[in-house]
Amino acid sequence: MGFEFKIRDQGAVHFLTFTVHQWVDVFSRKYYSDLILENLNYCQKVKGLEIYSWVIMSNHIHLIASAKNENLSDVIRDFKKFTAKKIFKAIQDNPEESRKSWLLLALSFQDKICFWEDGYHGEEIFTVKFLKQKPITFTKIL
Asked: CA of 134: how far to CAs of 20, 34, 98, in Å?
């Protein structure tokens, strides 16, 4: 199930959640979570993503983030599109992936990659109380 969410204030700080399709436990393998971190670093350096906090769970990601260029939706779109292709290819090319056939089947449909659930969940952070409810380590990636 995807989340329908629209960012109204593209420059505001948001609590964001991206979920792997069918809640598949892809990030239980360090190699795939490292690909996520590499791309988040890229988005920080090149696309102006500001990451205040993050956590990678086995099948989803939480971020507290904003965009310097007030284009958070665009950054999220590009991040999800790139990482979907990159991780799917990494699974295909990984000779040590014991779940390869199952993962490739679960993360595709009619020859199209379906790595992420449609949309994402996001909430604009308005209060410190809301921020403190989020069980995330406050650390910058860089």
From this structure: 20, 23, 34
pLDDT digits (tens, 9 = 90+) for 31-87: 999 999 999 999 999 999 999 889 999 999 999 999 999 999 999 999 999 999 999
Supply the pTM of this predicted model. 0.84
Backbone φ/ψ region at 111: left (φ over 0), alpha (ψ -120 to 50), beta: left
The answer to whether the beta carbons of residues 63 and 51 sit under 8 Å apart is yes
- Per DSSP, the three-state class of 125 is coil
* DSSP result, 19-82: EBGGG--GGGSHHHHHHHHHHHHHHHHHH-EEEEEEEE-SSEEEEEEEETTS-HHHHHHHHHHH
Using the structure block, give the residue that is written with the tokens 């983030």.
65
CA–CA gap between residue 123 and residue 127 (Å, rounded) = 11
CB 80 within 8 A of CB 120: yes
Q: What CATH homologous superfamily does 14-132 map to? A: Transposase IS200-like (3.30.70.1290)
SS3 for 97?
coil
